[in-house]
Design a protein that fits this description.
The protein has 356 residues and is an alpha+beta fold. It contains 8 helices and 20 strands. Strands 2, 3, 4, 6, 7, 8, 9, 10 and 20 form a 9-stranded antiparallel β-sheet that branches. Strands 11, 12, 13, 14, 15, 16, 17, 18 and 19 form a 9-stranded mixed β-sheet that branches. It has a two-stranded antiparallel sheet with strand order 1-5. It binds 2-OXO-4-methylpentanoic acid.
């Protein structure tokens, strides 16, 4: 494994960070990869600990065709964001939470994980090395994508003998092409994202390949994405391909509980706390399709999607709409509270932001 003629730079050495402005139209940026300046890599032998790591120019990596990640899907990813504030600071949102989730996922996937401290320091170093790619305040964020992959060669089924922890970044805007407008979801009744005892509760790469077929079919029919049901009863909500789901009825906000088949989202957890702080009753429990169809408002949460209001749900050919094509009041309020905090516009009384 190596990088293409990359001139490696130690994380603790002075980097030559380009300062020329980048040629991007910040008003039209969506959620697609923009090549940036540097990425971070560190390696670890099975049973060993991760090397200090280095920042190298962003680019292709070389990997043996028999690497564990390519053959047997031994891999995890994370997602978090850095925001530029009006007063010139850079804020990360709860990076230790991503580090902790990676540790939990690594345990499930038989991989060693970097320490929480190494993860957070590496994220900080990667963001600083790519500072010029952080969008101006209010124009988006720098999406940070940590990867943990079995990079060593295996042929028989076994944990890879070597692992690579890599972080790259890309400036992003809105995830859905609808922007901040409500999205239209269809409930998938044949295929499932996860099963009890499987890996649905960790951020392993295969969970995301598994949703592409239903997602593609839904998009071809004009829907924004797919909502999955539990694989046993086919009656309880799980999650959307790339985000968690919340259902609002009166002053109560319900969301599926974490029981191994849905991703423990960091935005999900944060929204639960923000909503409780604002006086809503929040319930983490099994939520039925009937409750969803009978809701006042529905919204999705995730690092990439932030808080995305749902305008309609289609289930077995029947379409239910929410609100009068506007964004629901609860979704709007939670979105503003969370993003104001993430962007440094309000006092962070939760202590969730980390200043670089
Ligand atoms: C994120 O929200 O950060 C994710 O990892 C979801 C991904 C499918 C974009």
């Amino acid at each position: 494994y190596g990088t293409n003629n990359a001139q490696a730079v130690r994380v603790d050495s002075p980097l030559s960070v380009p300062s020329d402005t980048v040629d991007i139209d910040w008003d039209t940026i969506g959620f697609g990869l923009v090549n940036t300046d540097y990425m971070y890599t560190s390696k670890c032998a099975l049973g060993g600990s991760f090397s200090k790591g280095e920042l190298v120019p962003f680019g292709n990596i070389e990997i043996n065709p028999s690497a564990g990640v390519l053959n047997y899907g031994q891999g995890l990813f994370e997602g978090l964001k850095a925001y530029r504030t009006e007063d010139g600071n850079i804020l990360l949102f709860r990076p230790e939470e991503n580090a902790t989730r990676m540790t939990m996922g690594a345990e499930r996937m038989c991989m060693p994980a970097p320490s929480i401290d190494q993860f957070v320091q590496a994220v900080k170093a990667t963001v600083l090395a790519n500072e010029r790619w952080i969008p101006p305040p209010g124009k988006g964020s720098l999406y940070i994508r940590p990867l943990l992959i079995g990079s060593g060669s295996v042929l028989g089924l076994a944990p890879a003998p070597e692992y690579t922890f890599l972080i790259y970044v890309s400036p992003v805007g809105n995830y859905f092409k609808e922007g901040l407008s409500p999205i239209n979801l269809i409930i998938e009744t044949e295929m499932h994202r996860a099963t009890p005892g499987g890996t649905g509760g960790v951020k392993t790469i295969g969970n995301y390949a598994a949703v592409l077929k239903a997602q593609g079919a839904a998009k071809a029919r004009g829907y924004s994405d797919v909502l999955y049901l539990d694989s046993v009863h086919k009656n309880y909500l799980e999650e959307v391909s790339s985000c968690n789901i919340f259902v609002v009825k009166g002053n109560t906000i319900s969301t599926p509980d974490i029981k191994g088949t849905i991703l423990p989202g960091i935005t999900r957890k944060s929204i639960i706390d923000v909503a409780r702080d604002q006086g809503f009753q929040v319930e983490e429990r099994a939520v039925t399709v009937d409750e969803l169809l009978d809701a006042d408002e529905v919204f999705c949460t995730g690092t990439a999607v932030v808080v995305s209001p749902v305008g309609s749900i289609t289930y077995l050919g029947k379409r239910v709409t929410y609100g009068s094509d506007g964004v629901g009041l609860v979704s709007q309020k939670l979105y503003s509270t969370l993003t104001s905090l993430q962007m440094g516009l309000t006092d962070d009384k939760m202590g969730w932001t980390v200043k670089l």
